[in-house]
Specification:
heterodimer, A: 482 residues, FAD/NAD(P)-binding domain, D-Amino Acid Oxidase, Chain A, domain 2, Arc Repressor Mutant, subunit A, eight-stranded mixed beta sheet, globular, B: 419 residues, alpha/beta, 3 domains, seven-stranded mixed beta sheet
């Protein structure tokens, strides 16, 4: 019997598990995929928003500003890549300038510090590449960029290191409400738990429905992106937004913590919350919007397109509240943007809610919060030399585009949540994230995974379950199978 | 450590450059190779057709590589394997790291860049659809199949008619897969004519010119692709869609010279070739740093890589012994010529002449390659029956016509009908 079971291990589930790991509780995390950070967490804008967008007084406003404020310290503790680079919301006409004024007032009400409305001249002095048509901008110095899956992995690893049990490949199929606990039926067995936390992202409404009635309508919206080569990473120095509309915060152009340039997202409603396709129309829309902000953006430098689905719902605000039908179940649902920014604060708020629902929260005496991750490419020449001398595995570069060594891949494989897929290695180390997109290092990463996990290469997936690049050899006349 | 000549890359270009530098009398040579074996991409090119020009016989890729590896073993050149160059400085310092020797800084009198090229990926094309497993660059699939002994799929559609894609169409067929089609967005094939014939026609694999893939579908593994005809601007034409049920897409949509080290060193790059701008002796804009092979411009035939690299090797060896300078002459790419390599000549440095490599920008029938001087005078003319963008062309210019030719020459192609 677990005290708490967290359903879903995206950044929200991981942050809640991290907070719960500070308490003397038996905590289980169930994740349907073969790794953490597999949903919206791995496909979003990777922005830590300053917090001027949400309506004052909302949970979203409070948790966003709070989360943004603590992100730098948290990322340093967890060895997660983060940079506070500030953001600009561009205005192209008088109506946009009015929007900036409203956002500024929102931000002040929400407690965002350092906001300033800039003249066109000030904007171009800060960002020479933005459009000549810009007539002003809202500057938010506290906005940052982060490695979103890195944050999720670091939070989840820390939780696991502090006693939280994580079960991957465990999809919740049915929840039985017993007298004093829940029986959670998954694809990998039944688990009993006194409390549940629903962090199932775009599938949270399904979990809600398993314990009573659906409490909100889900309306997933997909956002598509262009990721550009590192040679474009310096085109802008800040996160460049356009004025938000009803559809969302609009298309941004931003450097990433990995040194690339990101453009997107659009917003298209989709019926299937797992629909991660990109479309010609969507990419054209992003291209046009990206050029509106930064005319010189060169989309031929694209190294990857991707899309993510936001957990938008019929409710404007985040849904972090006890179920109306099942008193020991807490929802943390509808966590669309700025969910990544809010996650650390949201997790603390969720744990407070659990306390208010009757869960005792005794603190642990022996919690270990720190985490270090070695990144070869960020070391000095002397440090590289010393490291390779100490362990030759750090002298073998596997990913040539990003300069990722075998030593770093082995570190990942010995971490509390070892990856089982090529992309799992990519998210932890950066191998395969570069301009050749794993063309060279993919087979070598597969070889290392196969060797270290003792598994046939054919059984190794690219990413999620079933995404194996290799197929078994001839099973009886393939050519005749036409 | 100090060397006269440091060669970055142990593929066909690096091997040939090293052997030639040795032959030219250089006795202090180091070849740095990132893989665990010399030979580069030749090791996975197990088909034949290599060496027809250079050895006058037909070899497989590994056999061709083996000849040069054997030649290199006869020299006393040092070889660093499993060694990645992290940086090359304009002062010809080469920083590398390897499990065997850790972090090393080598100082060269001359450095030869021979890093080869990489393949364009799906991301560079922004092909719409989902992102399932089963989409490979042709070279990555070739590596899995020929080096790792692994099969990558059963029903295959190939996008692009570059040579590796064509070779893989045949290879996958021979291994029991069904290759359904090869799509080429351009109106002409990207690869060699002999590969179109021997790898597609001989196996009844349809080639769709002016077609592209407009969508890839499949949740975990590729399930289906949609292809369509494209117009002159390479935009899909609605109503021409064809659907293929397949589990694999191979991309053979172009090779990009791998010049991250060159850029880091501040070497001038030609946007047409994506390789360094070089002089007649394969020297880049930084004195003492040379480039050859696919890092300089993408070749079709390894034989030409060998010849070009041999020149670079010999010139680098000569560089370490001389300091002569001469005024450069720019080589312009004129009508129907996409680029030339070298882009600059120093006539004073030529022994007997200069070889110019180039590609045409469109298919040409009976034509003449013409070289004009800066005043417009015709210096040389070379008749040809046919020129194709997929096949690199080479001409040799005698030293006599280049001496005293002002500031530039222009290479152009005139089709006979138009003359």
């Amino acid at each position: 019997m677990y005290d708490v079971t967290v359903i879903g291990c995206g950044v929200v589930g991981a942050a809640i598990a991290y907070e719960l790991s500070k308490r003397k509780l038996r905590v289980l995390v169930l994740e349907r995929e073969n790794d953490v950070a597999m949903g919206t967490t791995k496909a979003n804008s990777a922005i830590i928003h300053a917090g001027y967008d949400p309506e004052p007084g909302t949970l979203m406003a409070r948790l966003n500003v709070e989360g943004c404020g603590e992100m730098e310290r948290l990322c340093r503790q967890l060895s997660v890549e983060y940079r506070r680079i500030g953001s600009l919301v561009l205005a192209f006409d008088g109506r946009d300038m009015k929007t900036l004024e409203r956002l500024y007032q929102n931000g002040v009400a929400n407690g965002v510090e350092g906001l300033r409305i800039l003249s066109a001249g000030e904007v171009r002095a800060m960002e020479p590449a933005v459009s000549e048509a810009v007539c002003g901008a809202l500057y938010a110095p506290s906005c940052g960029i982060v490695d979103p899956w890195g944050l999720c992995i670091a939070l989840a690893e820390t939780a696991v290191r502090n006693g939280v049990e994580l079960r991957l490949n465990s999809k919740v199929e049915r929840i039985e409400t017993m007298a004093a606990h829940y029986a959670v039926h998954t694809s990998a067995g039944v688990f009993e738990s006194a409390y549940l936390v629903n962090c199932a992202g775009v599938h949270a409404h399904e979990i809600s429905a398993m314990t009573g009635a659906q409490e909100w309508e889900t309306a997933p919206t997909r956002g598509e992106y262009y990721l550009l080569d590192k040679n474009c990473g310096g085109l802008v120095k800040h996160v460049i937004f356009q004025c938000p509309s009803a559809a969302g915060k609009g298309v941004l152009v931003s450097p990433t913590v990995h040194g690339n340039l990101l453009a997107g997202p659009n917003a298209a409603s989709v019926s299937d919350p797992d629909d991660h396709a990109v479309t010609a129309a969507g990419l054209a829309e992003i291209a046009a919007a990206g050029r509106k902000s930064v005319p010189s953006i060169d989309l031929r430098q694209s190294i990857r397109n991707f899309s993510g689905v936001r957990a938008t719902t019929s409710e404007e605000d985040f849904i972090v509240r006890p179920s109306r039908h099942s008193p020991h179940m807490l929802h943390a649902a509808g966590i669309k943007s700025p969910g990544l920014s809010a996650a650390p604060a949201l997790a603390r708020y969720a744990v407070e809610q659990l306390g208010a629902m009757g869960l005792p929260l005794p603190e642990k005496e022996t919690w270990q919060g720190g985490r270090t991750q070695l990144r070869f490419r960020q070391l000095s020449q002397q440090e590289k030399a010393a490291l390779a001398a100490r362990d030759p595995k750090y002298g073998r570069v596997i990913c040539r585009c990003e300069t990722i060594t075998e030593g770093e891949i082995l570190d990942a494989l010995r971490s509390p949540i070892p990856p089982c897929s090529i992309d799992g290695v990519k998210r932890r180390t950066g191998a395969g994230m570069g301009r050749c997109q794993g063309g060279f290092c993919g087979p070598r990463v597969m070889e290392i995974l196969s060797r270290e996990l003792g598994r046939d290469p054919v059984s190794i997936p690219q990413d999620g379950d079933g995404t194996n690049p290799l197929t078994p050899w001839n099973q009886g006349g393939l050519a005749n199978e036409v | 450590m100090r060397y006269d000549v440091i060669i970055i890359g142990g593929g066909p270009a690096g091997l040939s450059a090293a052997c030639a530098a040795w032959e030219a009398g250089c006795r202090s040579i180091c070849v740095v190779e990132r893989d665990r074996h010399l030979g580069g991409i030749l090791n996975q090119c197990i088909h034949n057709g290599f060496g027809l020009h250079y050895f006058k016989e037909e070899l497989t890729g590994p056999e061709y590589a083996e000849r040069f590896i054997h030649m290199l073993r006869q020299t006393q050149a040092d070889v660093r394997l499993d060694a990645m160059v992290l940086q090359a400085t304009p002062e010809r310092e080469v920083h590398l790291i390897s499990p065997a020797r850790g972090y090393e800084v080598l100082q060269g009198k001359a450095v030869i860049l021979a890093m080869g090229c990489r393949e364009r990926t799906r991301g560079a094309l922004s092909i719409p659809g989902t992102r399932p497993a089963g989409v490979f660059t042709a070279g990555a699939a070739q590596r899995y199949l020929n080096l790792e002994g692994q099969m990558v799929g059963r029903r295959v559609v190939i996008l692009g008619s570059g040579d590796i894609g064509l070779i893989m169409a045949r290879r996958m067929t021979l291994e029991g897969a069904k290759v359904l089609a090869c799509m080429e967005a351009m109106p002409h094939p990207g690869g060699l004519t002999r590969n179109i014939v021997q790898c597609l026609h001989d196996f009844h694999i349809p080639l769709y010119l002016s077609h592209t893939i407009v969508e890839i579908r499949g949740r975990t593994r590729v399930e289906q692709v949609t292809a369509a005809a494209v117009d002159q601007d390479r935009s899909p034409i609605p109503g021409t869609e064809m659907v293929f049920d397949c589990d694999t897409v191979l991309l053979s949509v172009g090779l990009i010279p791998e010049n991250e080290l060159s850029l880091q060193a501040g070497i001038e790059i030609d946007p047409r070739t994506n390789g360094p701008v070089v002089y007649e002796n394969m020297e880049t804009s930084i004195p003492g740093i040379f480039a050859c092979g696919n890092v300089l411009h993408v070749h079709d035939l390894v034989d030409f890589v060998t010849a070009e690299a041999a020149q670079a090797g010999a010139e680098a060896a000569a560089y370490t012994a001389s300091t002569e300078t001469a005024a450069p002459l720019a080589v312009h790419a004129g009508h129907l010529v996409r680029y030339t390599v070298p882009q600059r000549l120093r006539a004073g440095r030529l022994k007997d002449g200069a070889v110019l490599s180039f590609r045409v920008s469109a298919l040409c029938g009976k034509c003449r390659i013409q070289v004009h001087g800066s005043t417009g005078s015709l210096l040389a003319s070379f008749p040809r029956e046919r020129l194709a963008p997929g096949e690199m062309e080479r001409i040799r210019l005698p030293k006599s016509i280049l001496s005293g030719e002002g500031e530039s020459i222009t290479v152009s192609v005139e089709e006979d009908a138009a003359i």
